[in-house]
Amino acid sequence: MTAEELKSIIAAGLPCDHLEVEGDGRHWSAVIVSSEFEGRRPIQRHQRVYATLGARMHTDEVHALSMKTFTPAEWAAAPQP
């Protein structure tokens, strides 16, 4: 799987204001900004992203995914590199 494929899968299942995905084909990191994260705790946000990946997490297609999740307001307030 490529970073673009993983990005497309996440974006298809979760409306994202901003989405960055990097990785080596098995180990991934993502920055995800979505209004669906409003009022949700970090674990609930991660569960929402995992739900978009479905069986891919269980079949080892996506071995590991490290996430930073933000609401649009949190992202706007976060220092940008």
From TrEMBL:
Coiled-coil region list: none
Pfam families: BolA (PF01722)
InterPro entries named among the record's database cross-references: BolA, BolA-like_sf, BolA/IbaG_stress_morph_reg
Cited SUPFAM superfamilies: BolA-like
Family: Belongs to the BolA/IbaG family.
Record-given protein name: BolA family transcriptional regulator
Source species of the chain: Ramlibacter rhizophilus
Organism phylogeny: Bacteria, Pseudomonadati, Pseudomonadota, Betaproteobacteria, Burkholderiales
